[in-house]
Amino acid sequence: MKYIFSVLLLSILIVSCSNDSTSKQIVLKDPNVIINRAIRIHGSEMLEGNTFRFDFRGRHYRAFFNRGQYVYARSFEDSTGQMITDILSNRGLYRKVNGTEVSLTAKDSAAYAESVNSVIYFALLPVFLNDAAVNKELLEIETINEQDYYKIKVTFDQNGGGSDFQDEYIYWFHTQYYSMDYLAYNYQVNGGGARFREAFNERSVAGLRIADYNNYKPKDKRMDVENFGQLFMKDSLELLSKIELDSVELVKDIE
Fold first, then answer.
1. What is the pTM of this model?
2. pLDDT of residue 37
C-alpha cells in the first residue's frame, strides 16, 4: 500500500511540474504577456486621470495622463532666484519664467523636453513599454541574486522612437512577482555610455509601485547591456549615483 501511494504521489508531482513548466513556456513565448502582467502588478492603471507628483534632485515634477493625452511639468528655482516651469505635452514644450511664457530656440526646447521626459519616463516604468514604437524580445530567464527573472530586450522604431531611438534597453522581471527589479540601457549621445539600475526602497503610493535605484556604470567602456546582469553579479559595475524620488504622491486632479 505504501508503494502504491508513493507511485501515485510521484505521478502527481511529475504532472504538476510538467504543467508548471508548460505554463512558464507559454508565457516565455510572448514578452507582451510578461510586460502586461508587470504593468498590472505595478498598478500603472492608477495613473489614468490622476496626477503623479514627486521631487527629484531639488526639482518638482508632475505628470498627468488622460486617454492618451499627457501633461508633464518641472518646476525649480534657478541660480538667480527666478522660478522656472517647463511644461511638456502632446503639443510640445514651453517654458515659463516667474509665470510668464518665454521664447526658446529649437535646440533649447528639444533639450528641455528630453530632460523632463527622461526623468518621468524612468520614474514610471514599466508603463511606457507598450508604446507603439517599442519592439520587445524575450531573451531568456536569468538568475540574479538567487532570483529568476524574465529578461526582455527593448529597441525602438525610428518613427515615434524619439531622438534617442537607437538606444537599447534590457529589463529584468521577476518570474513569480513580475516586479521590474533591474534594468540596463545604452545611449549614443554625449559620447555614449551604458547604465545598470538596481531597484530598492520599493513602496506603494495609492496603489502605484514606486522604487528608487542604485545607478551603476561598467568599469570599462562596454555597451553590451545584455550581459550587465552577470557583470553585476561579478562586481564588474561601479556605483555611480542613487536615483531617489522624494515627496511622492498620486492625487486626483486635472492639470
1. 0.85
2. 96
